[in-house]
Amino acid sequence: MNPDLISREFEKTSPYVVGREKVREFSRAVFSSSLVNFSVEAAREAGFADVVAPPTFPIVVQELTFAQLLAEEDAGIELTHVVHGEQRFDYTRPIVAGDELTAQLTIASVKTLGGNAMVVAESVIEDAAGEHVVTAVSTLVVRGDA
Amino acid sequence: MSEVIVHEYGVGDVVAQAEYTLTRDSLVRYAGASGDFNAIHYRDDIAAEVGLPGVLAHGMLTMGLSIQPVVDWLGDPTLVGAYQVRFTRPVVVDPVDGVHLTVVAKIGQLDDEAGTARIDLTTTVDGETVLGKAQVRVTLP
Where are the transmembrane segments (chain B) (predicted)? Predict the structure, then answer.
């Protein structure tokens, strides 16, 4: 596990366009029964431009930043050794279909505990206007055993 | 003098609860929807190879469904300010019977002046909690 990751600057991910059917598919997968997740009409009546994504949908965009992290050859992180320890989302607003989202990754901390490392990866997700939508923070435990 | 919002809630009140059954089909559906195709979520042989007790539900699936009763109770997705969990116990999904999860959402803390609350989620399988420190920050409806 490479402690230099903390000072590394990652590029913003290319825009992820949130599709209406993707929102519906994800909503079904997390057992949502909220109408605004499925019905454009219900979402518009509630004041949204289109269907609203469930609270954990930002993980789909954050996933793009995990790919950046795993692609760093000197990071010392292999997917098969990674366990998801904690997850947090801080919302400014819900994601809606039609959003074009980018994510900016920073590594907030790297701690070594025994043979394992704990990495806190923070992804700030913004819309096309550069306005904050949500910040997703993951604690990843990288096992040093196998 | 600041106005104090009067509402019907008290610390410890159960505001929502729900039960879910996850099957292997649910995991395949979540894998496709989320793009998380880690094989420990659908292949018994690979789960066994890496020393797991069986095929596991995606932690993010457990996190995703655990907040649904709260979202339904709030009735407005903009009222969710933050959501966090710790993944403390793996959720093993039997190929035939699946797994049964119970979610109970209680008021953990109230801020009457701000009109906000911390909702504590307890998600259990066979009476044992699978998420730790599962908390939702909300604006009260």
Answer: none
